[in-house]
Amino acid sequence: MSRVAEGWTQRCVGCGKVYGDDVRSYVCAKCSNLLELVKDSPVSKTGLYGESTQPGIWRYRKALPIEPDVKAVSLSEGHTPLVLVSRIGAKFGLKGLHVKNEGQNPSGSFKDRGMTVAVTRAVQGGSKLLICASTGNTAASMAAYAARAGVTAMVTVPAGKVASGKLAQVYAYGAKIIRVEGDFDAALAITLKVAGEIKELSVMNSVNPYRIEGQKTNAYEIYEQLGFKVPDYIVLPVGNAGNISAIWKGFKELKEWGISSSLPKMVAVQAAGAQPIVEAIQHGRDSVVAVQPKTIASAINIGNPASWKKALAAIRDSKGTALAVTDEETIAARMDLASSEGIFVEPASAVPIAAVKKLMGKIERDATVVCICTGNGLKDQESVKVHLDSTPLIASPEQMVSLLAKTA
Ligand SMILES: *Cc1c(COP(=O)(O)O)cnc(C)c1O
User: Fold this and answer.
1) How far apart are CA 244 and CA 236, in angstroms?
2) 260 in the Ramachandran plot: left (φ > 0), alpha (ψ -120 to 50) or beta?
3) What's the Cα-to-Cα distance from 134 to each of 77, 131, 176, 184, 215, rounded to whole Å?
4) What is the SS3 assignment for 245-284?
5) Which atom of ligand 1 is the closest one to the Cα of 379?
6) Helix or strand or coil: residue 116?
7) So what's the pLDDT on residue 382?
8) Is residue 303 lining ligand 1, measured as CB closer than 6 Å?
């Protein structure tokens, strides 16, 4: 296994044990907790933002645990739009509601931020066969980057539970698809077990700490896009809980490195049918009790989140909160965001909007709120009913004119 890059320490988030080499299983041999990569010395503001003109996450190379001479496997990920959504904000009584539109990434979700780093690292170490368990987007992203790198991708997905747009991507990018009976948690458990025994397989799930490092760049971008200002709230969907851990790490680094002077409150949103993190927060528990997940928001249809420990810390340390929204609220929020702002997201990405609506009156009117809208709406068309049969069908200009007369 490759040595951890110079200037970086890899350690266990539970007992703090330090690992000088990449760890194949990504867990601590002593206490089974996940590992994290920590930069030993601060990066300056000009070091982080100033020197590179390259757009996207590799611009932040000084804050990534990849040696400077290694060629990145990149599709120009990151630099996604931060959009002030005033019309929907006004409905919720908020002046500063923003959407970070992560659906604009190369494969259509934020997963690309972490995947470019994890695949770069795996290929650097000589991996030829990448594997992940996925509710769809991790698979689509990994398959894209594997294609870019010229290596083989193999994905395990819960049978019958992945949006068709995501599967179409995985297939087109040329990955091998294995369906697993059960839900995502079963697919992940099988994948980690088999990868533990077959050393040719490199796991690209978010237990891989290099994923987290790429995903944290979202915090750097948001800070810059707000005019070097930390938002008051980050509201985001939580499934396996890698992203909340990553974005929180990014904001903490900005503060620890003396670049920013405050931290956002992290608001974790889950679906009512898959809310183990919300329950742990609401009952003040120190760990998460796994549940049987059931939600149409397939990207967060996860009952046993791998990064639960990091997520609980992010919510508690930031004085944030966690709440659940129903599938009905999610669908309504998705339609509302699309029809009032022109931003079409997949169901999981609409849960932060539904949550902000639910928190109406609790968030200060002047607060800067950033909803992380994690994935593109085109990926998941199943849950939007297109009522084509009830739309007019014409064959002549006259018919169109008479229709227009009726609508005018
Ligand atoms: C992966 C994913 C999530 C959940 O992110 P976690 O890091 O697993 O918490 C949310 N939304 C979309 C669209 C995703 O692809």
Assistant:
1) 7
2) beta
3) 20, 10, 13, 6, 17
4) HHHHHHHHHHHHCCCCCCCCEEEEEEECCECHHHHHHHCC
5) 13
6) helix
7) 79
8) no
Give the CA-trace dihedral at 112, 118, 124, 126, to 10 degrees: -110
Cα angle 234, 235, 237 (rounded to 5 degrees) comes to: 130
CB of 352 within 8 A of CB of 269? yes
**Measured in angstroms, how far is the CA atom of residue 174 from the centroid of ligand 1?**
22
- Among residues 46, 39, 3, the alpha carbon closest in space to that of 23 is found at 3
Residue 389 pLDDT: 75
Regarding the beta carbon of 346 and ligand 1, being less than 6 Å apart is answered yes
Q: Whose CA is nearest to atom 14 of ligand 1?
A: 299
Q: Using DSSP bridges, classify how beta strands 82-84 and 96-101 pair: parallel, antiparallel or unpaired.
A: antiparallel
- pLDDT, residue 115, reads 98
Ligand 1 atom showing the smallest separation from residue 103 Cα: 13
Distance CA 324, CA 238 (A): 10
Phi, psi of 45 (to 5 degrees): -60, -45
CA dist., res. 132 & res. 390, Å (int)? 42
Instruction: Domain 82-107+211-385: give its CATH code.
Output: 3.40.50.1100
Q: Which residue has the tokens 């091998």?
A: 176
Give pLDDT tens digits for 87-127.
Answer: 999 999 999 999 999 999 999 999 999 999 999 999 999 99
Q: Report the atom number in ligand 1 closest to the C-alpha of 348.
A: 11
Three-class SS state of 323: strand
151: helix, strand or coil? coil
Question: What does the alpha-carbon distance between residue 137 and residue 169 come to, in Å, rounded to a whole number?
Answer: 9
209 vs 34, 121, 129, 203, 377, CA distance in Å? 8, 11, 18, 11, 28
Angstrom distance (rounded) from CA 110 to CA 120: 17
Q: Ligand 1: distance of its center to the CA of 243 in Å?
A: 7
**Based on the number of CB atoms within 10 Å of its own CB, is 50 exposed (0-12), middle (13-18) or buried (19 or more)?**
exposed
Ligand 1 lined by 273 (C-beta under 6 Å): no
Amino acid at 313: A
The rounded distance, in Å, linking the Cα atoms of 277 and 255 is 26
**Per-residue confidence (pLDDT) for residue 55, from 0 to 100:** 80
Distance between CA atoms of residues 221 and 370, nearest Å = 12
- Give the strand pairing for 18-19 and 201-203: unpaired
B/e letters for 300-320, b = 16+ CB within 10 Å, e = fewer, are: bbbbbbbbbbbbbbbbeebeb
